[in-house]
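User: I need a structural model of Luciferase from Mycolicibacterium goodii for a docking pre-check later this week. Nothing fancy, just the predicted structure tokens so I can convert them on my end. Input:
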Amino acid sequence: MRYSITHPMHTHPYHPDLVSGSGVAAVAAAAEAAGFSGFGFTDHPAPSQRWLDAGGHDAVDPFVAMAYAAAQTTALRLVPNIVVLPYRNPFVVAKSGATLDLLSGGRFTLAVGVGYLKREFAALGVEFDERTELFDEALDVIRGIWAGDDFNYQGKHFSARGITAHPRPVNPPPIWIGGNTAAARVRVARHGDGWCPFAAPPGLARTAGTAAIDSIDRLAAGIEDLCARVAAAERDPAGIDIVFNNFEGGNPGDDDFDADAYLAGVEKLRALGVTWLHVTIPGDSLAHALETIERFGETVIAG
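Assistant: Understood. Predicted structure tokens for Luciferase:
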């Protein structure tokens, strides 16, 4: 099992120590030292005040921040959580991703999602109702431009003739696709190297416009469906990463965190085919985040 964290900007306002060069460097270096395999940032370039007041959170630019983190580490993969692909032109995403992968020595994974915040789409000039079409075309473009020269593409939203974009990434970065729905799993079967659903009770699922996954049984059903779709696409399900959270053991930042129960949950998830676990790190202070990362490394990763 591999473990990944997102830089802990969970609130609005955020703790200022977390959003400094030294703070980002400290979290990234601590994660690598503790044995984490992945580190990334969220993507909210233009959130609404209403969303922030309702429990949303601030964010830095994920590509800029991941590049900074890459310079502080040597082995940690840079995995955003997640890039809202319809927000950006796919050629620009491909260029940012290729640059980050090249400069980090091949350590970038592009994790992407469709997005759900209508006001953020409006602020960015992107049609909310066209987001799934934009998403699918963008995946085609990114795969194509990373694969070869003199690239041609004709879609509803993007048109390109004879495009060559160098330098290329070290190797085409893995693409993980977020979302709990069957539509997300269809995209994984067609385009993806990984599926990254998230734990969502019915209320959160309605807000995020996705399907509820609030138990290991629902996760298992989703994985079974994913494997069938990947096999039907004549691909090997064993080659698809699956990323999730752990329902057991509690929050790693809490005093009552139970590492043994957490590890028991890890084994259950491993048996289902989960290959990466996303770990939530507290964002109330830099010191608490660093302490939690170190303790998790000692009690779970090393255990």
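Before docking, keep this in mind: Residues 263 and 303 are 8 Å apart (CA to CA).
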